[in-house]
Structures are given as structure tokens and as C-alpha cells.
């Protein structure tokens, strides 16, 4: 009696990994807490005011609304910045953020929210809710101007599903 031949597949190697946030630099933020739209604008404006393409940043906040990180998430074209919730929320999760604020610039200087801006914010809000991270606001900052708009203040960030 002969044994049936058993074919063994090679074993799959699985990587054991850890993730960490890497601090590239830091900045001093005078007010310490972001409690309103103007303070959020003042944090983002130096990074978004003189751009020739859309840039999207995210800031993470702790439970006291103190900023804990600022991350450039996307550099786009003259009229769009492609970003997905996964890319925005990754640093927020790694930094153990309670909430986030996102901001992007419009090189045209026009701070009106486009349909794409509104849809993006709604998708991000839903993703944040699943991860129990509060989306505080989404700002649109006009390049080469002192103008900005808040999607929250305009009623686009609704808390219900």
C-alpha cells in the first residue's frame, strides 16, 4: 500500500509591522486651542495662501481642541485636489485625534464650495463618524486673498445620517 502524494503549498510569509507618526518639524501656535473658524483659518492660512494649485491639509485635535499635528494630504491641480478619507484619517488615527479640521485652497481666490467640495465633505464626515473622529469643519481658503469659507457655517456638515 502506497501513501497518496500530498502536495504542500509553500507557506505565506506575513510581515509583522508597526506604524508610527514621524515628526518632520513643528510650529508654535499662539492660541493653543482652535475654538472657532477664524482660529482654524489662522493656522491653515500660511500654508495655503500663495499656492498655484489646490493643496489639502488636515489638522488633528485632541479632546481639548488643541492641534496635535498638521499634515499636507494632497497637492492637486488648478481646480481640484484628489484626496480620499483613508489618506486624511490615517495621521488622525496614528496621532490619536479626537477630531479633525480639513482645509484646502482655491487658486482662483473664489471661496465658494463646489459640488465636489460638498460631496467630499459629506463622504469624509461619514468616514469620520465610523471611526469616532469628529469632523469639526472644512475650510476653503482663497489663494492671494484673506477670504475663506466654512462648510460647517454654510450648513453642509450635518451631524445626522
From TrEMBL:
<dbReference type="GO" id="GO:0006508">
    <property type="term" value="P:proteolysis"/>
</dbReference>
<dbReference type="Pfam" id="PF04002">
    <property type="entry name" value="RadC"/>
</dbReference>
<dbReference type="InterPro" id="IPR037518">
    <property type="entry name" value="MPN"/>
</dbReference>
<dbReference type="GO" id="GO:0046872">
    <property type="term" value="F:metal ion binding"/>
</dbReference>
<dbReference type="GO" id="GO:0008237">
    <property type="term" value="F:metallopeptidase activity"/>
</dbReference>
<dbReference type="InterPro" id="IPR001405">
    <property type="entry name" value="UPF0758"/>
</dbReference>
<keyword id="KW-0378">Hydrolase</keyword>
<protein>
    <submittedName>
        <fullName>DNA repair protein RadC</fullName>
    </submittedName>
</protein>
<keyword id="KW-0862">Zinc</keyword>
<keyword id="KW-0482">Metalloprotease</keyword>
<keyword id="KW-0645">Protease</keyword>
<dbReference type="InterPro" id="IPR025657">
    <property type="entry name" value="RadC_JAB"/>
</dbReference>
<keyword id="KW-0479">Metal-binding</keyword>
<comment type="similarity">
    <text>Belongs to the UPF0758 family.</text>
</comment>
Amino acid at each position: 500500500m502506497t501513501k497518496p502524494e500530498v502536495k504542500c503549498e509553500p507557506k505565506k510569509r506575513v510581515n509583522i509591522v508597526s506604524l508610527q507618526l514621524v515628526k518632520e518639524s513643528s510650529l508654535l501656535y499662539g492660541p493653543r486651542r482652535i475654538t472657532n473658524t477664524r482660529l482654524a483659518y489662522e493656522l491653515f492660512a500660511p500654508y495655503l495662501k500663495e499656492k498655484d494649485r489646490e493643496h489639502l491639509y488636515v489638522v488633528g485635535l485632541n479632546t481639548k481642541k488643541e492641534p496635535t499635528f498638521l499634515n499636507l494630504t494632497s497637492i492637486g491641480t488648478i481646480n481640484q485636489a484628489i484626496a480620499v478619507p483613508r489618506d486624511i484619517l490615517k495621521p488622525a488615527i496614528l496621532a490619536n485625534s479626537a477630531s479633525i479640521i480639513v482645509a484646502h485652497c482655491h487658486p482662483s481666490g473664489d471661496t465658494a464650495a463646489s459640488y465636489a467640495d460638498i460631496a467630499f465633505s459629506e463622504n469624509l464626515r461619514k468616514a469620520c463618524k465610523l471611526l469616532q473622529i469628529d469632523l469639526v469643519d472644512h475650510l476653503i481658503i482663497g489663494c492671494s486673498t484673506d477670504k475663506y469659507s466654512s462648510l460647517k457655517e454654510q450648513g453642509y456638515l450635518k451631524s445626522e445620517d
